[in-house]
Amino acid sequence: MVADEQAEQARGRLETLRQSIGQQVEELLAKLAAALAGHAQAEQDAETRRTALGEAEKRLAVTAAHDKRTEQTLSERSDERATAVERLRHFSASGLLAAALPDLQLPEHWSIDPTLNLARAAVRSGLRRSVSVRRSKWPRHRQCQPAPVRCGLPTTASRR
Question: How many separate domains does the chain show?
Fold first, then answer.
């Protein structure tokens, strides 16, 4: 009998352990399912962010290329302006500008803004009109000939 009682007590403890462990296993399985769902959501969010990152990188590349083209254009135009400033400065140094427009004030510093103001003032004062009138009075056939021919000098071809 004692053995039967001990066996019965052992069975009771076993059942109690199964129930308590079963509850813990169920709790662990629920936590595992929640963790897996969270992981799946995190993977989906990560994929969405990777896609957004790829699109942002494409936009960045396009913007960088545009920026490079813009910088190149700015550099080219700055060089063109500097060349134009230099040409107008040399032209005014020849005295022809002062002869054509004696009232025109030449800039002290030949930077872009004063030179642009000078060119605008020259245009406003009629420089273009007077130059075009003078050109129209010059015979057309003489405008197209090289300088030595216009002056009656032999050309390099006729010297040989």
Answer: 2
Does residue 47 sit within a domain? yes
Residue 62, domain extent: 1-77
Please say whether the beta carbons of 104 and 118 come within 8 A.
yes
Tell me, yes or no, whether 71 and 105 share the same domain. no
In a domain, 85, yes or no: no
The span from the CA of 9 to the CA of 2, in Å, is 10
pLDDT attached to residue 127: 62
What pLDDT does 129 receive?
Answer: 56
pLDDT of 10 over the 60 cut? yes
Q: Measured in Å, how far apart are the chain's first and last C-alpha atoms?
A: 144
Handedness of CA 102, 104, 105, 110 (dihedral sign): negative
